[in-house]
Amino acid sequence: MDTRIDKLADVLVNYSVSVRPKDKVLIQGGAIAEPLLKAILIKVIQAGGFPLTLVSLPDADEILYSYGSDEQLSHIPEPMKLVMETYDASISLMSALNTKGLSNVPPEKMVISSRARKDIMAKVMQRASTGEFRWVGTLYPTNAYAQDAEMSLAEYEDFVFNACLPDIDDPVGYWKKFSAWQQKIVDLFAGKEKVHVIGPDIDLKLNIAGRRFINCDGKNNMPDGEVFTGPVEDSVEGHVRFSYPTTFQGRRVDGVHLWFEKGRVVRATADKNEEFLLSTIDTDEGSHYVGEFAIGTNKGITRATGNTL
After folding, report:
1. What backbone torsions phi and psi does residue 82 show, to the nearest 5 degrees?
2. How much is the CA Rg of the chain, to the nearest whole Å?
3. Which partner from 95, 129, 135, 199 sits 20 to 30 angstroms from 53, CA to CA?
């Protein structure tokens, strides 16, 4: 087994969610991620946790969207609700075999599914904000992700592991030091009120008065490395165009251009999959507003790969 898999499992279990004896821990991912799933399972057991491992089948989401009724799409299984409401930690692996598998699903079906998960996600975020629930998401390198990044699988594995494990000899120690370094950036924003971002594709103003920046240091995402805040909801003014693609719910959206007035998206266009972009913005009233303003700091991520994480 690639020794980097064991190192990554150590970071996820003993740093990101810091599993303690008797912690109930959900471990979930696709079958192709078996090496990392097993390594995480071993680390959770060694830490004294009580693991629950859920392994998903390839194309399961595609099957549900293809055959499911609106009622079935909006159903949240009771066991999953119980886990999210009572477990101590969750480790989730992205491991797609085909990132375009949902490309032909009608956007309105995805909206139904997203709306149905709103309450459970709010509960998860509430529990996480108090420290009652710890979670982390990571990515297991697959050919699908490598193809999106226009790399070979070996190149993509190196890219991902280098971003997660800059110091392969002491990855946990690295992220602890990184956290302290990044806190200095967070501190720079303390007491500031206004942000104005200007560039070839952006002229955006927003208010951050009274808002706290968060030190993203590998506790929720891996790889990680950013500082972010939620701007004052009605403050965002101007426009931004993204020169790199974004993939969301299996859809790749290129050339996104957004215009804001009083915090709200008043116009949106895209060079590809514009209909999906518009339907996603229309999920609910809140989705018309900016949720995060962030600055990336992970020096190992040197290029866009079509994957948000």
Report:
1. -60, -45
2. 20
3. 129
Q: Report the run of H or E that residue 23 belongs to, with start and end.
A: none
| 209-243 confidence digits (pLDDT tens) | 999 999 999 999 999 999 999 999 999 999 999 98
**pTM, whole model, 2 decimals?**
0.86
User: For residues 209-219, b (16+ Cβ closer than 10 Å) or e, as one string?
Assistant: eebebbbbbbb
Tokens of 115: 């709306």
Average pLDDT of span 179-203: 96
Here the tokens at position 164 are 């997660």
The whole-angstrom separation of Cα 268 and Cα 275 is 10
Contact between residue 205 and residue 234 where contact means Cβ atoms under 8 Å apart: no
| Helix, strand or coil, per DSSP, at residue 6 | helix
Environment class of residue 156 by beta-carbon count within 10 Å: exposed (0-12), middle (13-18) or buried (19+)? buried
Give the pairing of strands 89-94 and 24-30.
parallel
Given its phi and psi angles, is residue 23 left (phi above 0), alpha (psi -120 to 50 degrees) or beta? beta
As a CATH number, domain 3-173 is 3.40.1830.10
Q: Please, where in the chain does CATH 3.40.1830.10 lie?
A: 3-173
Alpha-carbon dihedral sign for residues 187, 304, 162, 124: positive
- Calculate the dihedral angle through the C-alpha atoms of 139, 144, 149, 155, rounding to the nearest 10 degrees: 80
Residue 13 CA to residue 223 CA, distance in Å, equals 14
How many residues does this entry show for the chain?
309
Provide the 8-state DSSP code for 289.
Answer: B
Which stretches of the chain are assigned E, i.e. beta strand? 24-30, 50-56, 89-94, 134-139, 194-199, 202-207, 214-216, 221-222, 226-229, 237-241, 246-248, 251-253, 257-261, 264-269, 293-296
Amino acid code (one letter) for 107: P
State CA 8 to chain mean position distance. Answer: 17
Structure-block tokens of residue 303: 């290029």
